[in-house]
């Protein structure tokens, strides 16, 4: 419950899309959402869903709370008097499924007052970087046989449709070597770019960073105060965080970010390596978008293009402080130290972008009241503060104080949900964890004890996973009571997630 605000709110609108460390935050408002590209790889659990739908049991690591929640619209209402960017916070007191005692859940979101009518991108000086190495011959869509390169050409066509005469566009392609095919032509001369791409086929294996280096330098040649400078990079490079090529990519992006040249990386038919999405999102002006099917291409370029290439806030810091009368249990969508959670959690987002399609994700912090907490009285749950620089470079800050109302029962019966938003969020967190833990059971894990995924089902573990899901489904139904299904073109419904859980149970079999 937000009981007071210090100074002014930040961007009003719904929620931001998480990055991970897994982070995925979601901001939205009147059909506009803020994403800090930073929806890195943890926001994508499509592979796990596909395995379950196909009758299998996925790798538990493929299921994350952040990715699961990112498939749902958790748009928070805009507070009165909110500034361009704002935080929202809601509280719940509930007996969670796999927890010994009831927990307080803090659900955090970001929002903005920008709308599709009030948000307009500046003119671009953009460098298109296209991966045409041999791996781009692989099919993106098994049913149609569309290759990754063919999908990229479709995507580029849709990019060109978004450019106007004030924009400038350059084209860099890499196969066995990097080649600059078009330099600084006006955005309305799309045919020049398409002509240069005519007959392009995939082959060779030159480094991604060589082409990006050429593109950065090409873009720098055409710099102007009237335009934003940016690369749009289309690649299926499977880089792993910490590897030499991945480190080279991040280093290159950081070098040119210091010169105000941002980059959007479009991962085509690949997860782009565990953790690398987080690193990309931590580079100023950097973001990562997955292009795994035609619908994703349409969404990214027809509906989101302007917001994907236009940062709306920089140096964003969200800080949450929890009193020591509460014990930290876990957190999702926020950074965690190697040594475990502390009572102060700080999330740093170098850049925020808008997402005009939907509001995705949220941040969750779960705490357990200690013996010193008297739930008969109002419980201090903590403070959330937000600071950032707006698009004019001016600093803005705000602080919210959180408290749980008096009169809570120690056994959380009845539970307390400040609103339907946190009620839904708590249900989704519990569902994601039940699915993940069931998969860990089935493979004889937990991952903490056995970090190597073997991939062979364990008969005793399957029985345990079966019992877990059989117990969870009635819990799901009880917790979901009173909530709208919520399904839409841009959000999964609760019925979809119940069906997914039931399907995994069926897959475990007798």
Describe what is shown at a glance.
This protein has twelve helices and 22 strands. The protein is of the alpha+beta class and 510 residues long. The strands form five sheets. Strands 1-21-20-16-18-5-4 form a seven-stranded antiparallel β-sheet, with no helix packed on it.
List descriptors.
single chain, 510 residues, alpha+beta, Immunoglobulin-like, Rossmann fold, 3 domains, 7-stranded antiparallel β-sheet, 6-stranded mixed β-sheet, 22 strands, 29% strand, globular, disordered N terminus
Low-confidence stretches: 1-43
> Given the C-alpha coordinates, what overall shape results?
globular
CATH class of the largest domain: Mainly Beta
Under CATH, the homologous superfamily of the largest domain reads ntegrin, alpha v. Chain A, domain 3
The main β sheet shows up as: 7 strands, antiparallel
Question: At CATH's second level, what is the architecture of the largest domain?
Answer: Sandwich
Please estimate the helix content: 25-40%
The total count of strands amounts to 22
The total domain count is 3
What's the rounded overall pLDDT mean? 83
Helical segment count: 12
Radius of gyration: 23 Å
Give the CA-CA distance, first to last residue: 46 Å
What is the strand arrangement across the widest sheet? 1-21-20-16-18-5-4
């Amino acid at each position: 419950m937000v009981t007071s605000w210090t100074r002014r709110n930040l961007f009003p609108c719904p929620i931001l899309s998480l990055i991970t460390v897994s982070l995925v935050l979601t901001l939205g408002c009147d059909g506009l959402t803020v994403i800090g590209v930073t929806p890195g790889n943890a926001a994508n659990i499509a592979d796990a869903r596909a395995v379950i739908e196909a009758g299998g049991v996925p790798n538990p690591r493929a299921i994350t709370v952040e990715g699961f929640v990112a498939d749902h619209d958790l748009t928070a209402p805009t507070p009165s008097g909110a500034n361009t960017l704002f935080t929202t916070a809601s509280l719940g007191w509930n007996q969670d499924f796999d927890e010994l005692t009831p927990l307080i859940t803090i659900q955090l979101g970001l929002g903005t007052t920008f709308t599709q009518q009030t948000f307009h991108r500046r003119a671009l000086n953009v460098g298109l970087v296209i991966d045409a190495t041999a791996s781009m011959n692989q099919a993106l869509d098994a049913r149609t046989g569309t290759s990754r390169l063919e999908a990229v050409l479709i995507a580029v066509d849709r990019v060109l449709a978004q450019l106007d005469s004030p924009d400038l566009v350059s084209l860099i392609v890499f196969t066995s070597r990097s080649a600059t095919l078009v330099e600084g032509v006006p955005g309305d001369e799309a045919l020049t770019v398409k002509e240069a791409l005519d007959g392009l086929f995939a082959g060779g294996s030159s480094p991604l960073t060589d082409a990006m280096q050429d593109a950065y330098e090409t873009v720098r040649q055409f710099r102007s105060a009237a335009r934003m400078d940016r690369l749009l990079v289309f690649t299926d490079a499977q880089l792993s965080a910490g590897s030499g090529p991945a480190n080279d990519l991040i280093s290159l992006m950081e070098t040119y970010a210091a010169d105000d040249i941002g980059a959007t990386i479009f991962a085509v038919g690949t997860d782009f390596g565990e953790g690398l999405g987080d690193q990309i999102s931590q580079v100023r002006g950097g973001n990562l978008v997955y292009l795994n099917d035609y619908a994703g291409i349409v969404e990214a370029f027809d509906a989101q293009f302007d917001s994907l290439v236009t940062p709306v806030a920089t140096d964003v810091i969200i800080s949450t402080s929890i009193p020591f009368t509460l014990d930290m249990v876990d957190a999702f969508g926020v950074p965690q130290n190697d040594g475990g959670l502390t009572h102060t959690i700080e999330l740093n987002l170098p850049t925020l972008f808008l997402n005009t399609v939907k509001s995705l994700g949220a941040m969750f912090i779960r705490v357990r009241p200690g013996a010193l907490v008297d739930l008969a009285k109002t419980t201090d749950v903590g403070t959330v503060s937000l600071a950032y620089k707006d698009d004019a470079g001016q600093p803005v800050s705000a602080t919210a104080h959180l408290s749980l109302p008096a009169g809570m029962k120690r056994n959380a019966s009845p539970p307390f949900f400040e609103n339907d938003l946190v009620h839904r969020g708590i249900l989704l967190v519990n569902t994601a964890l039940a699915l993940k833990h069931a998969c860990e059971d089935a493979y004889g894990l937990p991952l903490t004890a056995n970090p190597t995924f073997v991939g062979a089902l364990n008969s005793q573990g399957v029985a345990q996973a079966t019992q877990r899901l059989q117990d969870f489904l009635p819990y799901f139904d009880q917790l979901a009571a009173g909530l709208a299904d919520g399904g839409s073109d841009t959000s999964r419904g609760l019925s979809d997630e119940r069906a997914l859980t039931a399907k995994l149970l069926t897959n475990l079999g007798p």
